[in-house]
Design brief:
The chain is an alpha/beta fold. It has helices spanning about 5-10, 30-40, 55-70, 90-95, 105-115, 145-165, and strands at about 15-20, 45-55, 75-80, 100, 125-130, 135-140. The chain has a single domain (about 15-165), classed as MoaB/Mog-like domain (Molybdenum Cofactor Biosythetic Enzyme, Chain A, 3-Layer(aba) Sandwich), CATH 3.40.980.
């Protein structure tokens, strides 16, 4: 089957959990989370869970494992904690949950980001992969980065990724 045929036979209504990872954001100031929700729902998917967590790797990992085990999601999208500062530690937590990495996501995100922000794109540790049959995408926490990741990479292929994960 071609990529187009795979997309055509992929699910179009998925259940997505959102997790904002930040030491400073609240529901009122989480513009990345709000943008993600709006884009996901506009694409016909349902946001089944939303949470803001501090960038504490043990808590982030435990939460992701609980969400994966809940049976209520097809995908998880995280925003935040992917940089290189001393508090940006979600990459390590997400990586421990992933059983299979989708290296192309991070590579393509940094390429697209480079076109927008230049060499600073190399500071992103955006990553994605599968935890069992659940797709997980870990994005930087800025609203612009989340919009870029969702519109150019995640939403166009989300059904296809989930279809393949279920096989």
């Amino acid at each position: 089957m071609s990529a187009e045929e795979h997309r055509a036979s992929s699910p179009t209504q998925l259940r997505v959990a959102l997790v904002t990872i930040s030491d400073t954001r609240t529901e009122a100031t989480d513009t990345a989370g709000k943008a993600a929700r709006a884009l996901i729902e506009a694409a016909g998917h349902t946001v089944t869970a939303y949470r803001i967590l501090r960038d504490e790797p043990v808590e982030v990992e435990a939460h992701l494992r609980r969400v994966c085990a809940s049976g209520n999601v097809d995908a998880i999208i995280t925003a935040g904690g992917t940089g290189v500062s001393s508090r940006d530690r979600s990459f390590e937590a997400v990586s421990r949950v992933l059983e299979r990495e989708l290296t192309g996501f991070g590579e393509l995100f940094r390429m697209l980001s480079f076109a927008e922000i230049g060499a600073a794109a190399m500071l992103s540790r955006a990553t994605a992969g599968l935890a069992g049959r659940i797709a997980i995408f870990s994005c930087p926490g800025s609203e612009a980065a989340v919009k870029l990741a969702l519109t150019r990479l995640i939403l166009p292929e989300l059904g296809h990724v989930v279809r393949e994960a279920r096989r």
